[in-house]
Cof-type HAD-IIB family hydrolase
Amino acid sequence: MNKILFFDVDGTLYNSEKKLPESAKNALLEARCNGYELAIATGRAPFMIESLLEELDINTYVTFNGQYVVYKGEVVYTNGIEKDELAKIIAFGEARNEPVVFLDDKRMIASVSDHMMVAESLDTLKYPYPELDSSYYMQNDVYQTLIFMEEKDEPLYCEMFPNVQFVRWHPYSCDILPKGGSKAVGIEKVLDKMGITLKDAIAFGDGINDIEMLQAVGTGVAMGNGHERVKAIAHHIADHVDADGLAKIMRKLAII
């Protein structure tokens, strides 16, 4: 057997209190003992999952929804929005008082200070308000940019900027991804390194940004707390993350 398990973080590994349940941790460690490789596939940045990687002894991860991929500690793929395109999006948002936050593998930088939508969105990740540098993306490689605007305004952005994707993760915020970018793309980069196919992978997720991943792999599992669109395309639906859903479904699938 040569299979790998990919886990989303928020709402999948982390419960509603942003903690890793003991049942989930034990299930992952047991899966490893049973011969499975463990990997993370998240919209978060690498620096935001350091403690989780350390706790689970994982060194393969797809971050920024596929834009920064590490296999066994080695960066194997990076991607991002072209600076010119990003500048147009930022200018459009600035005129509407809709700021951005830039992320690379080590830090998070905001374009404006003390913005309510930035503070509320990042607070759900238990993350403090970032440092300020509106031109950070010009001098640095940025692998993810967050745009802060309400859902009602998202169609406007989609119409204005058809060459990128806006993937919502909070009522006030979207990830800006290159067209065609996804966790599924990042997972393929890992599997290429391993010399195995998508059918050999099992993925677990709950959010809109997990849809491509769950559709691409051999077995896609949606958490019971997941978005209805995610559950609609999954091969299996687990119980709620707060009800030991991850451990239960891994047992049901005979992973453990």
Residues 83-95 form the longest helix (13 residues). The mean pLDDT is 96. The radius of gyration is 18 Å.
